[in-house]
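Field reference: sequence -> structure
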Amino acid sequence: MGELVRCAQRVSASICGLALLVSSTPARAGEPRVQIGPYVGYQFGGSLDATSQYEKRHINIQDAPTFGATLSFAAARDGTAEIGYTRTDTELTSHSSDGSFEKYDLAINYLTIGGLLEFSIPGAEWLRPVIGGTMGPSWFEANNEYYSYEEWRFSLLMEGGFKIQIVDHLGVRLRARLLTTFFTDHSALFCGTGTGCAFTFSGTALFQGEVGAGVYVAF
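Structure field:
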């Protein structure tokens, strides 16, 4: 778990450094300073090993469509500071060693802030590769036949992709992301008053992948 925390700290420092770099260099003169737009995509669910009532369980999160929006500000010559929101409505299935399982409706939300770098391609100004990272709170909303739960965690997101300018002030954005949500030692998930916790964890992380596309308006 210590190595996991140190890794998270290094990635967080890298994202903060990227955001500082983005904010410390003047933006290109004459270019739009703000971009806003929705996007849709597909998120690959991930899995976790947990304990429920002293029994080992394997948790699977189903792959599902995702949607969200981003708001970007040109803060450097080749960079932007960005705020984003993503939501995925999916299912969580918990399997025990005896073959039984429980199923929850699950919504995963990410609220992120960070920095992105854009790279110009000589002779193809309409196409810009993008790379960067964001971080922020994530929260899980789960329910089954009897209970409803909400839990908050910390997440780091790394991404790469392309921005394609169609016409002035309008473009398409393609991206792929790695989403990492951290669960510390002796943490729990989906706890209710007087009902205990559905799952407990001992220092692990949930890794998810996502691919998506959207449009953006620049002004």
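Note: The chain has a mean pLDDT of 82.
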